[in-house]
């Protein structure tokens, strides 16, 4: 599953962290479409707005499908056919969709076959392990090449400073209130069976796109048909993780403490966050 994430770069830092090469080999940065609707947080939960990559062609029909844009979208897919006037009236949870059943459910199959594929951006996600009758939270992320000490001001840091964002495969949709009003873009995160590296924490994990080729092909709905794109939906082992404080259990807590490694035996907060410090377990 994936029910809580952290994305603490500012809007411009995210844009620069998402640099990519276009088909002509030029280095590009995706354009933000609604950066004013995004706010960074160490503790994001469903129904919050989060940064998502998608093909520019979804918004501008004459654009290349390989061009990318950034959009802040609501976490928890509201299907285009939803008839109520308030998304909160949805009677089922659409924050995650299982890869093995998503083609059987109209809420996900409909947008997926229409090419509404997106990439959800986070610094990492939280998962809870059953441990001695209690739930121990972990922070899971791509291995980082830059050692970094997080402080309170990092939540507004505009410099990505070599951070590699976690790129999750998602499906999005576009819903218009039946009585008029602003249209809503929303998404769900695809989940798969957990890889060996993180299965000791939880039996499921988000479908993570490891590398720019996978990201590009997942987004390029005009050139890459659905069945070919689905080949990128599988567990990966290229992850690092560490235990964190139960302060993250309360979604109202939005502080750097949420991601700080702790020692499980002493519950001592470690303030250094790097690729493989002693308190961090790197997935083999």
Characterization of the model:
- The chain has 284 residues and is mainly β.
- The protein has helices at 11-17, 106-113, 212-219, 226-229; strands spanning 5-7, 20-21, 27-28, 31-32, 41-44, 49-55, 68-75, 96-98, 117-122, 124-131, 134-141, 166-175, 184-193, 204-206, 240-243, 262-263, 268-269, 281-282.
- The strands form four sheets. A six-stranded antiparallel beta sheet has the order 5-1-10-11-15-18, with no helix packed on it.
- The radius of gyration is 18 Å and the shape is globular.
- It starts with a strand and ends with a strand.
Q: What structural class do helix, strand and pairing data support?
A: mainly beta
Share in helix: under 10%
Task: Tell me the strand order in the biggest sheet.
Answer: 5-1-10-11-15-18
Query: How many β-strands, per DSSP?
Result: 18
Regions with pLDDT < 50 over 5+ consecutive residues? 149-156, 266-284
Q: Number of DSSP helices?
A: 4
Mean of residue pLDDT values: 88
What's the helix-strand series? Answer: EHEEEEEEEHEEEEEEHHEEEE
Name the overall outline: globular
């Amino acid at each position: 599953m994936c029910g809580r994430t952290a994305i603490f770069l500012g809007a411009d830092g995210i844009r620069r962290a998402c640099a990519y090469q276009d088909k002509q080999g030029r280095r590009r940065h995706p354009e933000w479409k609604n950066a004013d609707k995004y706010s960074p947080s160490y503790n994001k939960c469903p129904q919050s707005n989060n940064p998502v990559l998608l093909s520019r062609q979804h918004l501008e029909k004459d654009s290349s499908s390989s061009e990318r844009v950034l959009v802040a979208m609501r976490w928890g897919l509201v299907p285009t056919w939803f008839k109520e006037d308030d998304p909160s009236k949805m009677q089922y949870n659409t924050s995650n969709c299982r890869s093995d059943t998503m083609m059987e459910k109209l809420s996900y199959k409909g947008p997926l076959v229409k090419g509404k594929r997106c990439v959800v951006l986070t610094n990492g996600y939280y998962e809870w392990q059953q441990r001695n009758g209690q739930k121990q939270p972990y922070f899971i992320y791509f291995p980082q090449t830059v050692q970094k000490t997080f402080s309170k001001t990092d939540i507004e840091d505009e410099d990505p400073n070599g951070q590699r964002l976690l790129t999750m495969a998602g499906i999005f949709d576009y819903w218009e209130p039946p009585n008029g009003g602003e249209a809503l873009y929303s998404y769900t995160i695809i989940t798969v069976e957990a890889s060996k590296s993180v299965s000791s924490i939880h039996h499921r994990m988000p479908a993570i796109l490891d590398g720019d080729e996978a990201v590009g092909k997942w987004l390029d709905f005009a050139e890459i048909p659905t069945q070919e794109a689905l080949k990128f939906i599988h567990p990966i082992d290229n992850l690092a993780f560490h235990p964190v404080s139960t302060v993250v259990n309360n979604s109202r807590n939005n502080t750097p403490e949420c991601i700080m490694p702790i020692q499980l035996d002493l519950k001592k907060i470690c303030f250094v966050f790097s690729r493989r410090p002693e308190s961090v377990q790197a997935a083999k």
